[in-house]
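Here we describe the complex-level prediction in full. Unlike the single-chain runs in Section 2.1, the two entities below were treated as one system.
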Amino acid sequence: GQSLEQPSEVTAVEGAIVQINCTYQTSGFYGLSWYQQHDGGAPTFLSYNGLDGLEETGRFSSFLSRSDSYGYLLLQELQMKDSASYFCAVRDLDSNYQLIWGAGTKLIIKP
Amino acid sequence: DSGVTQTPKHLITATGQRVTLRCSPRSGDLSVYWYQQSLDQGLQFLIQYYNGEERAKGNILERFSAQQFPDLHSELNLSSLELGDSALYFCASSVEGYSGANVLTFGAGSRLTVL
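The structure predicted for the assembly as a whole is:
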């Protein structure tokens, strides 16, 4: 079956670094994506990893290890505006190549 | 503004009724996706269209149907509404998408409340 696991909630302090992990189980792998969603807002694409390694986009980085079926999103120099839910998503063969989404990690940032 | 337009933004209706949600994809995008998000839940994929053709179906109820028109806008029809259908319905679009896509651009969503 298909499944993605990510922590339901993470708390961090403004200015700090936080890592949100995602493990997945899929049949056929076509990349790991990360999306950000503020309360009441729309999901916004953050990052994509198709191959192993680290992808960096400003304060955000995403990592993938296909052999471990594992990835993470790293957020540096946390700002209050980073308070949001973060979703990992994987494209899956069994779901006809559609994105399968994790349940989301709520990031709470304290001043 | 993401470029994906959804209407209406909010909709309140009664059980047993029928509603239509509308989506215009970002200019140049051929694929449209519909997702349902219940309170504090993840996104559930409903259906995808690519250039007018249905490409993939997810957990879409038989009471729900969708279509994509020649101008590429899409409509999601929800009928015989139940209380449990109350949710945020998102439309997303992508440039690629004949076989899905990793990068989706989402609209602001339509919040449906069934009373």
